[in-house]
Write a structure and sequence with these properties.
This protein is an alpha/beta fold and 209 residues long. It is 31% helix and 24% strand. Strands 4-3-2-5-6-9-7 form a 7-stranded mixed β-sheet, with helices on both faces. It is globular.
Length: 209
C-alpha cells in the first residue's frame, strides 16, 4: 500500500513541522539498504525517522537488526503494528537528537546509522553522530542535494566550506546517489542525495582541525 493510502486510512497527513517526506521508490529503498552493508545476523542498524517503515522493511530483508527511531506519536503505533511479528525490529518512540549511540553500541555492537533526515535537522543530527563516532562504523543518510554538495566538496571548490572541513577531517564521505522529488510522498521541491560516511583510520587531530 502506498504511503498516501496508509496515511489517509488512519486520518493522517505528512507533517511539515517534522519535515516528513516519505520515500516510496522500492528500487531506491533497496539501494539504500545495500549501502548499509548489512551482514545478516551481525549488523545492528539504527534508523533515524523510520516513518511508515518502508526502509525498515528493506533493512530487515537484507538481514539487519533494526532499531527504528520515530518521534511522531501518530506514526510510532503504526510502526509497532507493522513489525509486531518481526523480532529483528525494535520500535523506539524518541527524538533522534537525544539518542545515545554508545548505549546502543554497548548492547548491539558497532552500529550502522541510516535515515532519510528531515532537511531542517540535517546538520544537528550529523554533528550528533560525529560526536559519537566511536559507536558506529557506517553512516548512510539522505540529505538535501545542495547539502551533499558541501559535504563532499574538495578544497578549492566553490561549495567547500565549514561543513566540508568538519566532516572530511574525521570521515570518508561519499555521495552514493541522487534521488528525484517524485520518489517521495509528498514530493519535495528539491532533489535529495544519499551520502555514506565512515570514520577515517587517521582523523585530523582536534588542534589541527
Amino acid at each position: 500500500m502506498k504511503n498516501a493510502q496508509v496515511l489517509r486510512q488512519h486520518g493522517l497527513k505528512a507533517k511539515k513541522s517534522f519535515g516528513q517526506n516519505f520515500l516510496e521508490d522500492k528500487s531506491i529503498l533497496a539501494r539504500i539498504a545495500a549501502l548499509c552493508d548489512v551482514k545478516p545476523g551481525a549488523t545492528a542498524v539504527v534508523e533515524i525517522g523510520a516513518g511508515l517503515g518502508a526502509l525498515t522493511a528493506s533493512l530487515v530483508e537484507a538481514g539487519g537488526h533494526v532499531v527504528a527511531l520515530e518521534r511522531d506519536r501518530d506514526l510510532a503505533p503504526l510502526l509497532r503494528a507493522r513489525f509486531q511479528n518481526t523480532p529483528q525490529v525494535e520500535v523506539v518512540e524518541a527524538n533522534a537528537l537525544t539518542m545515545d549511540l554508545h548505549v546502543l553500541a554497548a548492547r548491539l555492537g558497532k552500529l550502522t546509522v541510516c535515515g532519510n533526515l528531515p532537511y531542517h535537522l540535517t546538520s544537528p543530527l550529523i554533528f550528533l553522530a560525529l560526536d559519537q563516532v566511536t559507536a558506529w562504523r557506517r553512516l548512510v543518510v539522505m540529505v538535501q542535494k545542495e547539502v551533499a554538495d558541501r559535504m563532499v566538496a574538495p578544497p578549492d571548490n566553490r561549495t567547500y566550506g565549514l561543513l566540508s572541513v568538519l566532516l572530511q577531517g574525521q570521515l570518508q564521505v561519499r555521495r552514493a546517489l541522487d534521488v528525484p522529488p517524485h520518489a517521495f510522498h509528498p514530493r519535495p521541491k528539491i532533489w535529495s542525495s544519499v551520502v555514506t560516511m565512515e570514520p577515517l583510520e587517521n582523523p585530523v587531530p582536534g588542534a589541527d582541525l
